[in-house]
Amino acid sequence: MINNTTGPLIGILTSRKENGDIAGNGPLFIELQKKLISLNGVSFVFTTEGTTKDFIIGYTFSLEKKCWIKRKFPYPSLVYNRIPFRKSEQKESFRRFISVLRDKKIPFFNPCFIDKYELYELLKNHPVLQNFLPQTILVQEKKELFSFLKKHKSIYLKPSQASKGIGIFRLKLMNPSAIQLQGVDNYESYPSFHRFWDRWNKELLEKNYLAQEEINSAEYEGNRFDFRILAHAEVDGYVLTGVGIRQAQTQEITTHIPTGGRLLPYELFQSTEHDQFIQTVVPHIGEALSKQFGFFGEFSIDAGISKTGRYSIYEVNSKPMSFDETEIEERKIEQLCRLFLQLADN
């Protein structure tokens, strides 16, 4: 059994794909291992299926052999949750394992994925953050959704438990009563809201869609852009790790890179007002999440600014994707390992 005695032993919790392979962000796991070894620590990746009462079967990356090696490990100093699938966190095996960690008093962070509507409900009562939220409702009734659409004329429809822009649509009310529905790669029109609802109500209700007012986003060179903000916990609160800009290009529904978005440097847009907004919301969001759901060691924020200068928080992500900006990814590794050491020492 591997038993690291010179530094912290970090467990990275993930899950398996349907074919049985280990899932997750392999490049991130390898970079964390490299950094931890330089700090006299070591990490291993595991799933709940590999856990027993006294030890865990996991995989550690060998820098010498440049491959993953299966080993038996004692329970780690802390566990970093990088489970990539929401359904994996809904399994009884996950709940049992979290209970074991609590019994053993092992720190555990990023306890869960965030439901978009639960996030809205949490932040809308916050004295500071409520000022940055687009109006949002849960799609439950035909009449309520139609009233919301009539009020805002253009809204976004988002599944409450999806990420990466999957399943997002923009719904517009055209004159006199026609409905326009636009997705990342599809476009549909309906002569009335009634016809739209007949076609879409089953999916909207089954996938717990929410409706959010469309913000008339500020543009750069003719296309809208968003802020991607990465933050991490430290002993005395939350700190900004990095900011990137994502700009819509091939379609206007999302700014995500996989759906045709463009990456731009924050320095191109940086201003005192932008900096102040970001520095204001980061600690408040981190504290609100941790108070409601359990300790969050990291999160990312999708935010924007309107043409009139109104800032908006669109989403908060508990399992941040890799940033395409190399310097932000490097700071992320630094911040995570610093947090590992702090938590492992407590």
* Rg, Cα atoms, Å: 22 Å
What structural category do the secondary elements indicate? alpha+beta
Query: What is the total tally of β strands?
Result: 18
Query: Order of strands across the widest beta sheet?
Result: 7-12-8-9-10-11
Protein name: Endospore coat-associated protein YheD
InterPro entries: ATP_grasp_subdomain_1, YheC/D
List keywords for this structure.
8 helices; alpha+beta; ATP_grasp_subdomain_1; Endospore coat-associated protein YheD; Rossmann fold; YheC/D; 346 residues; 6-stranded antiparallel beta sheet
Describe this structure in words.
With 346 residues, this protein is of the alpha+beta class. The longest helix has 22 residues, at 272-293. The strands form four sheets. The chain has a six-stranded antiparallel sheet with strand order 7-12-8-9-10-11, with helices on both faces. It has helices at residues 26-38, 86-89, 92-103, 116-123, 142-152, 193-206, 272-293, 326-345, and strands at 9-13, 42-46, 56-62, 67-73, 78-81, 108-109, 136-138, 154-159, 169-173, 179-182, 187-190, 209-213, 219-220, 223-234, 237-247, 262-265, 298-305, 311-317. α1 links the parallel β1 and β2. The chain is built from eight helices and 18 strands. It is 30% helix and 29% strand. It folds into three domains: 9-109, Rossmann fold (3-Layer(aba) Sandwich), CATH 3.40.50; 116-132 and 216-345, ATP-grasp fold, B domain (D-amino Acid Aminotransferase, Chain A, domain 1); 136-213, no CATH class. The two termini are 24 Å apart. α1 (26-38) crosses α8.
